[in-house]
Amino acid sequence: MCKNNLTKTACLTIVLICFTFSPVTAAVISIDADDYPDGTDISTAFPGITLSSVGDYTGLDGLVYAWGDALASTPTNVFANNLSYQRQWHAGITDGFALRADFAYPADSVTIDIIGDDQGDIGVLYAYGAADNLLESVTSPQLEYGEVFTAVIERASFDIKYIIAGGSADNTVHLDNLAANVPEPASLVLLSLGALLLRKIAQ
Questions:
Q1: Are 152 and 120 within 8 A, CB to CB?
Q2: 26-182 sits in which CATH class?
Q3: Residue 54: how many CB atoms within 10 A of its CB?
Q4: Which of 105, 102, 142, 146 has its CA nearest to residue 126?
């Protein structure tokens, strides 16, 4: 089966047609700190996602915590780190303490609430692929104290492996209400089978 080049081309065409017309179903994973007491480590609290604090700021422990905050966009809590800044996040290249979320299975869309904690704050959301390549980014407008901007990144395929969010330049922001759209288990099986078939045809 699929031995010569002509047959391989025909097989490849059939597989591509099948997957073009086979819908991939997905489910939204909601990641919110509201259900946890202040100071709870929620880095691995959500199935299919790992939260971490990243950057070169001295003393950053790499974990993410739940913490009560009057500026929360959902009822009570936001994402926090272990620094004295706690509920503030900064995505700068140096002295950074940004929020990172890694997905067990790549997402095709991600949203997060960026909240101003001062006058004129600007936040940013970066989406990265499996090769650590920057896929897309969204920058908020200048935010007033307590103003919420929902950053949204939507892709044509499931290629967002992780995101990083925080304040840009010299700004800090609060972060809340993260959500990602990822393939459901049945679709993951379908995608895996497709990849296997394509490898077999190429041999």
A1: no
A2: mainly beta
A3: 17
A4: 102
